[in-house]
Amino acid sequence: MHKKSGIALILASLLFGCVNHPGGPQGQTLDLGDSQRVSRLFAYPNNCSVICYRDWTLEQTVEHYLQQSLTRDGYPQASVSVTRNGERVQAHFTGTPAEYGKPLLQLLDAGDLAYQGASQLNRDGKWQYNWYFFLPLGMALENRKSVELLHFPPDYSLTQAQDYLRSSTTDRWAALLSYNGIAAEQTPAYQTIVDIAPIAAPASAGSALEGVYGYFNDYQRRMVDELSAAPNDASLPMVAFGSPVRSWIKQQYGVNLPVLGLGQINAGAGRQVPVLGANHPSYIWYAADPANNKGSEDAANAAGIRVMGQDLSAACWQASMGQQPTRDAQQLLSSCTQKWQVTQKLQTCELFFTSVRNLKPEQAQAKCKAG
Q1: In this structure, what DSSP letter does residue 213 have?
Q2: What is the pLDDT of residues 268-313, one digit of tens each?
Q3: How far is the C-alpha of 262 from the C-alpha of 271, rounded, in Å?
């Protein structure tokens, strides 16, 4: 290669985030930024104190999350390798469509906004010692079916699993999607997550994190705009989980979303996004705790079955809208609610006892028929 053409190639990588071929059989190389930027945005090192739980290099860490995205996008045969070229970190994809890198670069650009917010939060003395900056890495980048708005990721998803979708919250919702006809291996495509606080924290941190949303407004809006976009100017369905997130929707977009309340938000350029209010996926364990029902196990079971019906209805709407985003959202919600809270109420009851009370199917059947 001539010296001048080599310089031009480097300049192209810096300006456009892309070098070599834009796609096809020879692959695609993306410039992700310098090592300092990539370390910040990939929360590197993910799990180190004195001893590293997984002693990975920066390149291995980035490769790990990008391979997750390839698998969740439905490209299990595709591959990615991450290397350093001087101070630049580059990802080389093979077996992916030509435009595959675009949503990744958008995520990292949005991540810069999130990091600015987190840095300001720290300068203001509000960052806590057991919080970790954590972007939604490893999600489906291209073949998304729906978007999930949540509060914050649990710390162990970062420090233990290195998997944004590895949590009791996401596992439970994946099961609900499966009950509504989505194959288990396809549920990650429906679970592209935007946490309004990009901070991995202990489960008990919810109330402390409710005061930090304003630091991430630019990041939040950018993520909602970009992740909700579908081909042909359509919009992907979105589910807002839990009261903090539903309150955030009200504050940011002026849309009131009770549980199973349906609304539309403006994602920019006149595009309307259908959004459904839902319980937090873990709320059912609170609702079904006898301690929160005056010590009555019967009352706790009744509360749990009611929440189970709401959750199954929300997952039904999400699954069906994800398959056909242009469907009538309100009509579909009515159909899903009728299905799980009326027509198949007995199955809703049984699913509560098997998945929340951990009874065997025959025990659940007997309990629901008796009730």
Answers
A1: G
A2: 778 999 999 999 999 999 999 999 999 999 999 999 999 999 999 9
A3: 16
> Could you give the CA distance from residue 23 to residue 17 in angstroms, rounded to a whole number?
13
The 8-class DSSP code of residue 239 comes to E
Distance CA 2, CA 8 (A): 10
Sign of CA dihedral 224, 225, 230, 234: positive
At the top level of CATH, the class of 130-370 is alpha beta
Nearest to 167 by CA among 179, 154, 176: 154
pLDDT, tens only, 77-90: 999 999 999 999 99
Encoded tokens for 263: 């609304």
Q: Return the amino acid letter for 125.
A: G
DSSP state of 186: G
Nearest-angstrom CA–CA distance, 155 and 27? 35
Answer whether 43's CB lies under 8 Å from 54's CB.
no
Domain definitions of the chain by residue range: 1-99, 130-370
Strand pairing class (132-133; 199-200)? antiparallel
For residue range 166-187, list pLDDT tens digits in order. 999 999 999 999 999 999 999 9
- In single-letter form, the type of residue at position 109 comes to D
Q: What's 75's DSSP letter?
A: -
What are 236's two structure tokens?
Answer: 């992907």
Rg (CA), the chain: 22
pLDDT in tens, 70-124: 999 999 899 999 999 999 999 999 999 989 999 999 999 999 999 999 999 999 9
Q: Output the CA–CA distances (angstroms, integers) from residue 55 to 59, 67, 299, in the order listed.
A: 12, 18, 49
Please, are residues 236 and 190 in contact by the beta-carbon 8 Å criterion?
no
Alpha helices in the chain (DSSP H): 3-16, 35-41, 58-72, 101-123, 155-156, 168-179, 187-190, 206-209, 217-227, 243-253, 283-287, 297-323, 329-338, 345-355, 361-370
How far apart, in whole angstroms, are the C-alpha atoms of residue 321 and residue 228? 13
Average pLDDT, the chain: 93
Q: Are 18 and 31 in contact (CB under 8 A)?
A: yes
